Amino acid sequence: MRTFDVNSKKDIQELFLDCKKALDISYSPYSQNRVGACIISATGAKYYGSNIENASYGLTMCAERTAMFNARINNVKKEDQLVIGIAADFNSYAWPCGACRQVMVELLPLECHIVIFNKEGEYKIWQVKDCMPGIFSSSDLKEKN
Ligand code: THU
Predict the structure, then answer these.
(1) Which residue minimizes the CA distance to atom 2 of ligand 1?
(2) N or C: which terminus of the chain has fewer CB atoms within 10 Å of its end residue's CB?
(3) Which residues are known to be catalytic?
(4) What is the pLDDT of residues 4-61, one digit of tens each?
């Protein structure tokens, strides 16, 4: 069962609303830049994340990683994660930062879609496998035995 169709305007619009729902619970008193993310799994379940800042600025957690950790601790299988949407109240698109891209490579399947929205709901669609050149992943590590 596929619960998200990347070619469906309706599914994309719903994902945008879900990201904005997550954005509304952002904790961003320092930057005032709210970010929301939502992962949809093969069962149709949704896993939300928002950015969570800290007075010790470097401890800030991005919305995408919050959503990925949310899916992970709810025991969603890697291959069952179909899409991650990201929306922000930035002036530009909600491009995922480098740290989030590396975590995407670890926790999401390479085919998983990434839908990056701007404030108006316009979007770009990538897949995890396209999100950085020369991906470093577990397959690069030496055997442990
Ligand atoms: N932020 C995210 O949530 N995701 C990203 O990929 C980039 C940045 C957040 C972190 C911080 O709370 C705010 O945006 C400004 O950098």
Answers:
(1) 62
(2) C
(3) 64
(4) 999 999 999 999 999 999 999 999 999 999 999 999 999 999 999 999 999 999 999 9
Tell the residue nearest (CA) to atom 14 of ligand 1: 33
**What does CATH list as the number for 9-139?**
3.40.140.10
3-state secondary structure of 21: helix
Say if residue 2's pLDDT is above 80: no
d(CA 90, CA 117): 10
Degrees, nearest 5: CA angle 33-106-43:
80
Nearest to 122 by CA among 19, 5, 4: 19
Atom of ligand 1 nearest to the CA of 60: 12
Question: Is this prediction's pTM over 0.90?
Answer: yes
Residues with CB under 6 A from ligand 1: 28, 31, 33, 35, 51, 53, 60, 62-64, 96-97, 100
pLDDT digits (tens, 9 = 90+) for 69-123: 999 999 999 999 999 999 999 999 999 999 999 999 999 999 999 999 999 999 9
Is there a contact between 116 and 18 (Cβ–Cβ < 8 Å)?
A: no
